[in-house]
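Rather than argue in generalities, we reproduce a single protein record, letters for residues, whole numbers for local backbone shapes, just as it appears below:
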Amino acid sequence: MLTSREIQIVTKLLEAEKTLRTKDLSTELNVSTRTIKSDLEQVRKWFTDHGIELCSQPNRGYWIECSENNRLKLYKTLMEMESKSLYPDQNIRIEKILYLFFSQNGYVTAARIADYLQVSRNTVISDLNFLEDYIKPWMIELERMPRTGYKIVGEEIHIRLLFEHIIQESLSNFDLYKIISTLKSGGTDEINIGFTQEIQTKFEKVIQYIHLILKDKRFEAVSHAEIVSIFIRLIIFLVRLESEFTIGSYRLLKNNQHIGSLSSKFILNVMTKICEEFDFPILEDEFLYVHRNFLLEDKELNLLTITEELIRSVSKKEGIPYDKDTRLFNNLLTHLSLRFEKNKTYVTEVNPFKNEIKRNNASLFSSIKEACEKLFGKNTKVVQDSFLSFIALHFLVSYENVFDKKPKIRALYVCSTGRGVARLIKNRVEREIGEINITRYCSVMEVDEISKNEDIDLIVSIFPIKSSIPVILVEPVPTEENILAIREKVNELRRGKVAGEDLTIENDDGHSLVMDYEMISQEIIVKGFEISNEIFSMLAGKMTEERKMGLHVHLFLMVHRYYFHKQYDQFIHQTKDDHDEQLLHQINEILIRHRIFINETELIALLPYFQ
């Protein structure tokens, strides 16, 4: 049989889209790598017993290879083992003790808890000490009464938020899948969340009535996220009301009051069925609790200000100008508005990437959490890890799309003549390695001159040559080994470039502009206009209106190519024909004054307009 931690590892392997390393598992499960390796041996035996091989490779990690159907069967096997009750560790025991407190009106003795968990009384006392510290951030206290027992006390909304949090934390991705499937089908046999019997009974009743109402085709448009959120709150509402705890006043819900959206009609239909069976009145505040978070009844919750301050605070903490990214602001404001809109169902978020985001982006996660706790004030309880992880995703997308502009490596390809299969080689290498840009081709005799006059990061050559610039020796037609060697060198050079680069571009005065697409577009338009005007002034009376219009468009596109690193390939013009060198020099001076540095091929492409 598997222990609780081993079951967690099995679950992670079944869910993983990539390999799992012992180091990451030890960090996430808060145990040593030696312990993880020991657990993995038991996990390997378990998979073997079920006809699945646990694959492993040094420096890569562990993974399984099996069909999606087999994965689902293994999930079902884990659920049937009822593992949570067989080998409860302290975290699971805390969860079970809290479920017991949530469903009780009076005090619960240590002896009853010990009997329920099948552990010693000393273990229970130790667990209760831990539980006392665990619930403090939720503004809930553990009340001790000598010779009577224990119970949790605090505002009802705080207790319900903790209740909701505990349910969410205990749900795996597969649990969510099974819940949705069961709500559609109506069965309950295969779901074991680890509730007490009192809560399990309510759980099954809520499933029964949601399934009944979902048969009505009017409610087909209610999203799965809303259904899960409503489902969890209905369980909590039913458990707490039967334990004689209400969230607000005893004012009854009036006809059609607060009923407008599809989800509100869905909630009312389900609550009506539940209250009829348990002989409960439909209270207005209880309906509002299920419909949206009670804490959000705060007219001073200004989401516009919160969004601005959140981005500004994280920008300052992380040293990255997120506050310059207008798309981040718009996306984040939309996310918060949808989550906290008062007339919509408040959807509790279950984020399957939460642990990975916390582990891989600890600094960003911490900065966001600190900012949110300050900004939401008394509403801090909405600041849960799943919520913070979704906020972090917005910042990560912003960083990747706007600020993490990793530079491409500019390469020179040295072959026999600098011509021949140059285009074929360029396409092959750039297709295989997206981070390289082969900007020039040349023969051995031209290497020194080009290296001195142009910004080259890497030389790829079919001949052994000496240069201060890194050189990769390849076959005339690069082999797979050659491509691998180029890729490794490119990655090494890019790391060096990123370490020394700023996340900005410069304007005419040398001031920094954040790499934001909106600002780049403005910069391109302004520079294109200014450059065109100067060149037309220099050539006044020397061009026809038709050529002038063509050149005008060409200059704007040229500036656009420069900003997005898409200049014309220089290797097209390997020989120097007779050009108007003076005219090219004058045009280039104008471009340089505007901090546009184009290559020779781009300059030569302008000449047909002046002939």
The longest strand covers residues 436-442. Residues 517-538 form the longest helix (22 residues). Residues 351 and 455 are 45 Å apart (CA to CA). DSSP finds 26 helices and ten strands in the chain.
